Predict the 3D structure of the following.
Amino acid sequence: MNFQPLGKRVLVKRVEETKTTASGIIIPDNAKEKPLMGEVIAASSEISELKKGDKILFAKYGGTEVKLGDDEFLVLNIDDVLGIIK
């Protein structure tokens, strides 16, 4: 499925964080918060600072969750993107 964000938006796939603590304790899925990092899958043509493949950090309550095919994504307004992870 092909998706092109409009306006100043990006399509992001969340990057799953590790499921264990530093001491080796496994964290169950229902006790974890959703990750605040993701990979840019597509960006609108109005955004020049982000491109496909960039790893980003975004606001905790920003964006709209969408399901495209079998995958879940987040559509974020550029104002919800906090920065690029290098």
